[in-house]
Predict the structure.
Amino acid sequence: MAAIEAPKSQYGQIADELRKRIERGVYPLGSPLPSELRLADELGVSRVTVNKAVTLLRASGDVKVRRGLGTYVRSFPRIMRDAKRRYAARSLGTGAGEVEVRKLNLTSTTKYREIGRVGSPERVAQILGLRKGADTLVRRRVLYADGEPTQMADSYFPWTIVKGDGSLLREDAGKGGSYSRLADLGYAPVRFTEDVTVRLPNDAEQQTLQLDANQPVFEIWHVAYAEGDRPVEVCIHVMPGALWTLRYDWDDDLAAGPS
Amino acid sequence: MAAIEAPKSQYGQIADELRKRIERGVYPLGSPLPSELRLADELGVSRVTVNKAVTLLRASGDVKVRRGLGTYVRSFPRIMRDAKRRYAARSLGTGAGEVEVRKLNLTSTTKYREIGRVGSPERVAQILGLRKGADTLVRRRVLYADGEPTQMADSYFPWTIVKGDGSLLREDAGKGGSYSRLADLGYAPVRFTEDVTVRLPNDAEQQTLQLDANQPVFEIWHVAYAEGDRPVEVCIHVMPGALWTLRYDWDDDLAAGPS
DNA sequence: CAGTGGTCTAGACCACCAC
DNA sequence: TGGTGGTCTAGACCACTGC
């Protein structure tokens, strides 16, 4: 099989070998891998060792297991999320949520899990400049592409500024999405920040996003500011890492002076 | 405890339990966990099961193993990388590379692995608008905080525009770093883009960054553009995911119209 | 030397799926 | 009912560490 055997674990080598076969098309996109028992037999190792290799492939998003059925090669391309343009898209149709997925000719679906008035989580209150537990309007949703979950997104708005707007309490927030409603209320977002981290998913996220315990997710804290640096929305995105590429761009700030 | 409890694997529960103990300070930061054999004994499971739990803690960056010694609780805080400000920092001292680490009162070190003239990798050539394999100046380096590797960074410059500048061939590129040298040459960067993905590290990265096969890394493709959208640098960062928070901010673009 | 984690095995039982 | 992956065990050998 391999010419030179590096001092590497068998399961590591097997993972590499399987990746190679996927690249070469021995196991085409969307097709099932041979069963772990077969692979163990072919490669002359125990099933546990094969399973450990497959665990790596799952963590990297190269394969996906369907329980009771088999292990399948991933068929999704990475989705590009252009931070700047996705929000600019509100000048056209609906909100930012579904822009990227449609570009890939995939069917985009949004499922709302909660829309209503709730006390804000501590960190959210802090960012929005509210008292701890102060009322916020929350919109919690899950987005899908061709039926597969691609992200969870929880938006929080200070209740004091959105209470007069009923459309934010409906699933369809109307033309241009929630940011257009904020604009209607006199709080048009003019500046955004995003903090990006990677971590492993918790139990709820594993279930909602159909992930394993060792598949990393992006966590993005998106904050929208209106005129006068007034924070008007916090949106927390949780997205399977293997599915996304995040794009950012900005102009140099040297002219404005250091801060 | 929980209202509805999903049936969960023992190793998953053990991972949760260990995380709890770390949070509560039962195992303080920097201290060693009990050995896997002890834990197996205490928890009434096999050592393999404990090991699988520890594997999860390693993937999330909560613990770090020292071979032959034991498993230690991780003590590093996350490092904030503010994309905009780090480059603005060149107006003061050295380049962007060490800004963040110093903020945390950690010792920052840079080790150069290669500085010289090389044929550009395909994707780099494409971004820089060069012929495939065209000459570039490469600066490949590894950054450390308190002796621990925090990122690999490989910068590529079109050879045609930097060949006249010797300081870019030295480790210390001079006051303000390489971007100031580009400015000297008449190619001051005015715009940047970054594409961010997460993936598992390859063999070389595992070794250089002291990572396990299942610890995710950020891969950032940073591109600097001079006036007239002329690409003048591509820098590829590979950074342990558990160590970093990436921050971006930008102004709304609606006024400029959609693209 | 003894203790640590790294790895591998053979065998076992389970839940899930399609037929 | 048979095939799939999910999990767990007891036992084993190894490389590495510090003493």
